[in-house]
């Protein structure tokens, strides 16, 4: 290649890079210009709304709001905003919780930083009386740098549903500490999450692994952008929104900044008890119970699912899997959990009776424990995997007693880390049929969907009993509550970027 030819090639490649990068080049803003307006709730959606936005420079900020769109802004009510920044961002964040609002009312809003005002928009408070409701739900936009075109299309179409709120189950960005990626997300949200009438759509988020340094087992301090940019109800990591009299939305933290068990588990049961008279219960988290056999999935299945069944939760949504899945109505998993609980309690009681403080119960020193833990129960002469798991619970209880307090929780942590425990669950999860756990009347429907735009993951062609549907496609779901019929309708909307077309698939309807 000649030198001139080489120069031309470099220029062409450079131009292609620029063209391909266009979707993710951030728009230029004035330093005081309010941008990235996000609506969340910290308190009752009937009487409050929290408005949060960013600018590039610190300055006094306020929110003007009124139920009358046409009066001058000087006649609007005013609320001073909190202004702050945090390490790792160039943004100044401004946030105000508007209180003492009227249920079921439309409020017109202008936000101001310095002397620069936003365009006027509106929001609606939740109704005090039963009425039809619409929500959209999804997860995993995430790959903003490479998938912006798809993400823009999917989020834009979801906003056209004119939903009361967007229930978002985690993974907003790919790099948790990237100020640039968070700007991309919030600029896009500001642009798209507004209806033709100027109503901004609130978000009800759950934290995902891509919001947190290292993904799992972290703390709020390890997820600075998520917890500083979203103003959330008490506990923040897990919270409940009662939207009107009929619809309860519980957002959970699947071991990203709060443990699945412990304080969150106590809170979850108390919250389900408190809202058990609500007509419709929906729970969502980033990682769910039916996607895999990793430790988080296993713990959610063990701790949360029995509560979902006990308190008759209607829908459970999760993301994390960049695909689309749905289960039938599942009920009875609590019986299996109870069986495991009994194994642990029995094994621990037996171990306490047999414990000899002069002996060493380290797993490698206990005959057969290593092989059983690895799942070789048939080679060791056990008739069933349940019998083998019972013996493992006993032997690991001896080790737990040797190393500290003998509690069922500590024994479970040991048992659940074994290959045998995983195989026990595989015998349930991978069965072609498991009719005892399908109950159309009492069951819980689990929705898996990380299809808002992240690069898709393949879906196994195998169809165990709990996969009513499974496909690798971009999508969101629309939830429609028909209050007159007391029905909840769930409709999936799929996007095919190669063909630039949308398709609506069969809905499921839950009736009361």
Total count of helical runs of at least 4 residues? 12
- Which percent band covers the strand fraction? 15-25%
The coarse overall form would be elongated
- Low-pLDDT stretches: 6-25
Quantity of strands, as a count: 23
Alpha carbon gap, first and last residue: 73 Å
* Average pLDDT: 93
CATH topology of the largest domain: Purple Acid Phosphatase, chain A, domain 2
Named CATH architecture of the largest domain:
4-Layer Sandwich
Helix content: 25-40%
Search tags:
512 residues, alpha+beta, Immunoglobulin-like, Purple Acid Phosphatase, chain A, domain 2, 3 domains, 7-stranded mixed beta sheet, 29% helix, elongated
Structure notes:
The structure is a single chain. It is elongated and about 80 Å long. The strands form four sheets. Strands 10, 11, 12, 20, 21, 22 and 23 form a seven-stranded mixed beta sheet that branches. The chain has a seven-stranded mixed beta sheet with strand order 13-14-15-16-18-17-19, with no helix packed on it. Strands 3, 4, 7, 8 and 9 form a five-stranded antiparallel beta sheet that branches. It has helices at residues 3-21, 144-159, 179-192, 224-229, 263-274, 295-303, 305-310, 333-354, 369-373, 385-403, 408-415, 419-429; strands at residues 35-40, 49-55, 61-66, 77-80, 82-84, 92-98, 106-113, 116-117, 121-124, 133-138, 165-168, 203-205, 239-243, 247-251, 280-285, 315-318, 324-330, 444-449, 469-471, 474-482, 487-496, 501-504, 508-511. Helix 8 (333-354) crosses helix 10. The protein is of the alpha+beta class. Helix content is 29%, strand content 24%. The protein has three domains: 35-124, Immunoglobulin-like (Sandwich); 133-331 and 438-511, Purple Acid Phosphatase, chain A, domain 2; 337-429, no CATH class. It contains twelve helices and 23 strands.
């Amino acid at each position: 290649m000649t030198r001139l030819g080489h120069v031309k090639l470099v220029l062409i490649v450079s131009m292609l890079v620029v063209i391909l990068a266009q979707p993710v080049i951030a728009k230029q803003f004035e330093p005081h210009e309010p941008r990235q307006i996000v609506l969340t709730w910290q308190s009752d959606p009937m009487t409050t709304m929290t408005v949060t936005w960013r600018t590039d420079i610190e300055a006094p900020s306020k929110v003007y709001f009124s139920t009358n769109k046409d009066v001058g802004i000087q006649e609007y009510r005013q609320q001073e905003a909190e202004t702050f920044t945090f390490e790792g961002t160039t943004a100044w964040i401004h946030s105000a919780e508007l209180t003492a609002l009227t249920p079921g009312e439309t409020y017109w809003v202008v936000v101001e930083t310095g002397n620069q005002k936003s365009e006027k928009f509106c929001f609606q408070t939740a109704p005090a009386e039963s009425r039809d409701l619409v929500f959209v739900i999804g997860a995993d936009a995430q790959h903003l740098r490479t998938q912006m075109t798809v993400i823009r299309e999917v989020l834009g179409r979801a906003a056209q549903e004119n939903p009361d709120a967007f229930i978002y189950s985690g993974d907003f960005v790919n790099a948790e500490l990237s100020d640039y990626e968070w700007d991309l997300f919030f600029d896009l949200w500001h642009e798209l999450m507004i209806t033709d009438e100027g109503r901004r759509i609130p978000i009800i988020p759950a934290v995902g692994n891509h919001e947190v340094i290292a993904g799992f087992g972290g703390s709020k301090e390890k997820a600075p952008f998520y917890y500083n940019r979203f103003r959330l109800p008490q506990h923040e990591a897990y919270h409940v929104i009662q939207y009107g009299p009929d619809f309860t939305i519980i957002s959970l933290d699947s071991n990203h900044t709060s443990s699945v068990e412990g304080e969150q588990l106590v809170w979850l049961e108390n919250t389900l008890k408190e809202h058990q008279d609500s007509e419709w219960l929906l729970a969502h988290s980033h990682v769910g119970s039916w996607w895999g056999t990793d430790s988080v999935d296993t713990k959610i299945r063990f701790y949360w699912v029995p509560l979902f069944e006990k308190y008759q939760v209607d829908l459970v949504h999760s993301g994390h899997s960049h695909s689309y899945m749905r289960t039938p109505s599942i009920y009875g998993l609590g019986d299996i959990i109870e069986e495991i609980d009994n194994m642990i309690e029995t094994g621990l009681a037996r171990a306490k009776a047999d414990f000899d403080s002069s002996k060493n119960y380290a797993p490698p020193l206990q005959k057969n424990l290593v092989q059983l833990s690895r799942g070789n129960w048939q080679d060791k002469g056990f008739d069933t995997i349940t019998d083998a798991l019972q013996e493992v619970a006993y032997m690991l209880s001896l080790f737990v007693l040797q190393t500290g307090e003998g509690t069922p929780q500590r024994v479970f942590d040991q048992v659940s880390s074994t290959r045998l425990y995983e195989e026990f669950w595989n015998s349930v999860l991978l069965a072609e049929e498991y009719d005892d756990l399908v109950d159309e009347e009492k069951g819980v429907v689990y929705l898996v969907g990380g299809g808002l735009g992240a690069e898709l993951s393949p879906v196994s062609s195998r169809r165990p009993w709990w996969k009513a549907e499974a496909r690798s496609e971009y999508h969101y779901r629309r939830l429609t509550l028909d209050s007159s019929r007391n029905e909840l309708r769930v409709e999936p909307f799929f996007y095919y970027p190669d063909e630039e077309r949308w398709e609506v698939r069969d809905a499921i309807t839950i009736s009361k």
